[in-house]
Design goal:
CATH class of the largest domain: Mainly Alpha
CATH architecture of the largest domain: Alpha/alpha barrel
Number of strands: 38
Shape: globular
Structural class: alpha+beta
Strand content: 25-35%
């Protein structure tokens, strides 16, 4: 992140700040019953109108890299950040916040939308919505889907497709709206469609038939921002497809200048299946019978600054107690480069979706023609993901941050290149030291991460000496943590491949990048000590535990890749480095409680650093190791002590007292909210962060959710499940809809990429490991091992894993819902102290010969030959233990 404007004020204030005693309580005084409740399965988080919880809800509801379109709590779309807007964040503004000592200005990238969230009704750029006309006998009702029209609306936060319930005991029909993007893991192509799908399931609550008509409408959004009457005219036209009816909105002009503007394009509303009535110039307010009647001309034109709304009506006949659905697609198409990214040649040719579709109507037609498959798979993924024994709230919080990819935070250019900001329109260049925290995209859309590794990190950003520029075209130097994290991601991307091709074609560059990383250890002790940029926007001197440990993890990953490549000499070199570094880190960088920053022998503690303080990332390298199956990197007990220290010294059930006395940080957690502070001074040392106070010190007093998520993931992996769940729940509660948008974890601007570290906590809760080229799959649930069920994704397929223990028998099932899975080895855990006697493996009733090995409770089942599990099939393994 980069914060020069905010920094100047912070620096002058910090220079005058006296020593403030550490004031985070060791005893967290958490109610044991509340902690126990965090493990309960529960139900989907439901936000209700009756509790005033709908106004901030903004679930990213469009395709990946297709701009920011929010689904609101009452089912209407808002924000409409589809016009290649260069402004920073979803709601560019500066607000005032009292930091405990005075009122300070907070910009968007400093947390303005955390302090004062955007409100849906203030950001409805385009008119869009749905309504019902219900006729039963001589009675007629008309009801719009908006908050003011229903006594109760409830929003189920099941990203990527939400369920919204509309209920009125006096109304004969109730409706469940399912709305969201086309979203299927492993299908990045179709997940990038610029569209939102609405399926409105209407239920007849009475004992007599009813006639229902569903009206959907959308304002013509072409040239919405910039057009003047002299520029041209607005047009809505009806397009009849084989599978659907569309009203497309365009802007007619002869001006090349108008056509080059960022908001020149098209919008459309499509009825899946033929619409019964069509409007090209609908006047939806006040809603009346005319809105549901008759056909209008196939084409309507207006002046540029007149509002032009298109509408479609679908008729449904409902039997007593019957139900049926009407399906619609809202789509858009604005294929213009973002001027802010003019350093990137790729922007000149537009965006990925522009290579597939000429306009918004074509998007709607494609989805309608393939509706059963595309929407069906999106629903199948949602239902598979949430069909788990894990707590529903936990599944929501660990997954929903992948919605960042469905905002203006990311782009995919016409040549297929993936590119991202840190937060929406803030800090460019798919920054390595931020994006390396994000675990979600690599698991859900691995092809995008492979593209970023090959095209950017090992291509555009690779220097002759092996250094990887941490912002590619937008920088000129590597960042040490970004370098290490990129090597770890390369290993993950290799694991999320079906074969060795990715590793083989990139090995020479990977090797060079690893050599560069090891060269940053000047004295040969396996601990990085070359001053380089890091994610806290500073160059620190000395041997810093979190950077040392992250480098050790990266080199260990390179050792594993070298072994697979048959590069035995380099594998041995990496092993020597990692072994030595692990020993020295445990011996030299541990202060008896936690891991520290050892000052440079010459520079001392003059410059900014964490030194003998308790830093949130101190054992981050080991956290990364658990994500990719690298095992233990250094002393276990010291690692556990470090995590316990972070809990003891950095986690506050209420951060208010701390941030009021340790000022200068940004407001990403407020008084009354729980969180883990970045860096604390439990020893109450004077000048704990060095003699030279710089603006970056402000970061130390903050709670940034991406860092918190990686610690929670690590705690989960190490068996500190209480602490992991409490931390994750603190973040979840900070983003409750009563306070702010649940779907927007903010750091440096909105939808911050680092927050996708949350998925790592889900991975470690499942004890999940995977290596596609080896055909290896592993599960070790951190709780409820007797009866466990959870989703999983692999290189080419996804599904559900089930584990049950009954007496001396343990059952395991790998059920594939999508794609295929090549399996050679299955790793599981038995009950402690039990010895395995026999294993039986079946695939669709076919016996698969297998052997097994057991070490303590760890069991590795090896199939005689690699076995393919296809969609709809399952592998069952039955383990019999000695009584």
């Amino acid at each position: 992140m980069s914060l020069p404007g905010w920094a100047a004020g912070v620096k002058s204030f910090l220079a005058k700040t006296p020593l403030v005693l550490h004031n985070i309580p060791e005893d967290k005084q958490l109610d044991p019953a509340w902690v126990k409740s965090l493990y309960q399965r529960g139900n989907a988080t439901v936000y209700r109108k009756s509790r005033n919880e709908l106004r901030y809800i903004g679930m990213p509801a469009g395709g990946l890299h297709a701009g920011t379109v929010y689904l609101g709590g009452d089912g209407r779309l808002w924000l409409w950040g589809i016009y290649n807007d260069e402004r920073e964040g979803v709601d560019p503004k500066t607000v005032l916040w009292n930091d405990g000592t005075k009122e300070v200005k907070v910009r968007n990238r400093d947390g303005a939308c955390y302090v004062e969230p955007a409100i849906a009704d203030n950001k409805r750029v385009l008119e869009q919505g749905f309504a019902l006309r219900v006729r039963q006998g001589s009675k007629t009702w008309i009801r719009e889907f908006r908050e003011s029209e229903w006594p109760e609306i409830s929003f189920e936060a099941t990203y990527p497709v939400a369920r919204i319930h509309f209920r009125d005991p006096e109304f004969p029909v109730s409706v469940i709206m399912q709305a969201g993007a086309i979203f299927t893991p492993l299908d990045a192509r179709n997940a990038a469609l610029p569209a939102t799908v609405f399926s409105l399931e209407c239920s007849n609550n009475t004992a007599t038939p009813v006639a229902v008509e569903v009206l959907g409408w959308l304002e013509n959004g072409a040239s919405k921002v910039s057009a003047k009457n002299e520029d041209g005219e607005r047009q809505n036209e009806v397009i009849n497809h084989q599978h659907a009816t569309t009203v497309m909105g365009t802007f007619l002009t002869t001006s090349d200048e108008v056509k080059s503007r960022r908001d020149f394009g098209s919008t459309s509303i499509t009825c899946v299946g033929k619409a019964d009535r069509v409007h090209t110039a609908l006047e939806p307010w006040p809603l009346n019978d005319r809105c549901f009647e008759g056909h209008q001309p196939a084409v309507t034109k207006t002046t540029a600054q007149e509002k032009l709304v298109g509408g479609l009506v679908k008729s449904i006949r409902l039997a007593p107690k019957g139900k049926a659905a009407a399906d619609f697609v809202i789509s858009w198409h604005f294929d213009h480069p973002l001027a802010k990214l003019k350093k990137l040649e790729e922007t000149k040719t537009g965006y990925y979706y522009g290579t597939r579709f000429p306009n918004a109507a074509a998007v709607g037609e494609y989805i309608a023609a393939n509706f059963e498959r595309l929407h069906g798979q999106s629903i199948l993924w949602r239902d598979t993901y949430y069909d788990s024994t894990l707590p529903h709230w936990f599944l929501e919080r660990t997954f929903l941050n992948i919605g960042t990819l469905a905002t203006a935070n990311t782009y995919r250019f016409a040549n297929g290149r993936f590119w991202g900001w840190e937060g929406v329109n803030a800090c460019e260049g798919t920054c390595t030291h931020v994006w390396q925290y994000a675990q979600a995209m690599g698991r859900i859309f691995p092809e995008l991460e492979r593209d970023a590794r090959e095209r950017t990190d090992l291509g555009i950003a690779m220097q002759p000496d092996g250094g990887i520029i941490f912002r590619a075209e937008y920088e000129s130097r590597p960042a040490i943590d970004g370098q290490a994290g990129t090597l770890l991601r390369i290993y993950r991307e290799h694991q999320l491949s079906t074969d060795n091709a990715f590793l083989q074609r990139n090995w020479d560059k990977i090797r060079k990048a690893a050599v560069f990383l090891m060269a940053q250890d000047k004295n040969g002790d396996g601990m990085t000590d070359t001053p380089m940029e890091n994610t806290l926007d500073a160059v620190w001197e000395g041997e810093i535990a979190w950077i040392v440990g992250l480098s050790i993890a990266a080199v260990r990953a390179c050792q594993k890749m070298a072994e697979e490549m048959g590069d035995s000499d380099f594998a041995a070199r990496c092993k020597t480095y990692a072994d030595k570094g692990g020993r020295n880190m445990a011996d030299l960088l541990f202060n008896g409680e936690y891991f520290i920053h050892r000052p440079d022998a010459i520079a001392g503690r003059k410059k900014l650093g964490s030194y003998n303080t308790c830093h949130i990332d101190q054992v981050y390298g080991q956290a990364w190791a658990w994500q990719v199956g690298l095992g233990r990197l250094w002393d276990k007990e010291k690692t556990m002590s470090a995590l316990r220290s972070l809990w003891k010294y950095n986690f506050a059930p209420d951060v208010g007292p701390y941030i009021q006395t340790h000022t200068g940080g940004r407001p990403y957690a407020l008084a009354g909210e729980g969180g883990m502070v970045m860096n604390t001074n439990p020893k109450n040392e004077p000048n704990p962060y060095g003699d030279e106070v710089t603006w970056q010190l402000g970061y130390f007093h903050e709670c940034m959710s991406g860092f918190e998520h990686q610690v929670a993931a690590h705690m989960m992996a190490e068996g500190m499940t209480d602490e992991a769940l409490v931390m994750t729940r603190a973040i979840h509660d900070r983003h409750h809809a009563a306070k702010r948008n649940p779907f927007n974890e903010i750091e440096c601007s909105d939808h911050y990429a680092r927050a996708m570290a949350s998925y790592g906590t889900f991975i470690t809760a499942c004890g999940f490991e995977y290596h596609g080229p080896k055909g290896y799959l592993h599960f070790a649930p951190r709780w409820q091992a007797e009866n466990f069920r959870a989703p999983f994704t692999t290189a080419a397929g996804w599904g559900t894993y089930v584990q049950q223990r009954k007496g001396n028998v343990q059952h395991h099932a790998v059920i594939l819902k999508y794609g295929e899975l090549q399996l050679q080895e299955l790793g599981v855990e038995g009950a402690p102290g039990r010895r395995l006697q026999s294993v039986t493996v079946m695939v669709e009733g076919r016996l698969i010969p297998a052997t097994f090995e057991q070490e303590d409770k760890g069991i590795r089942i090896t199939l005689k030959s690699r076995t393919t599990i296809s969609t709809g099939q399952q592998l069952k393994a039955t383990l019999n233990f000695i009584a």
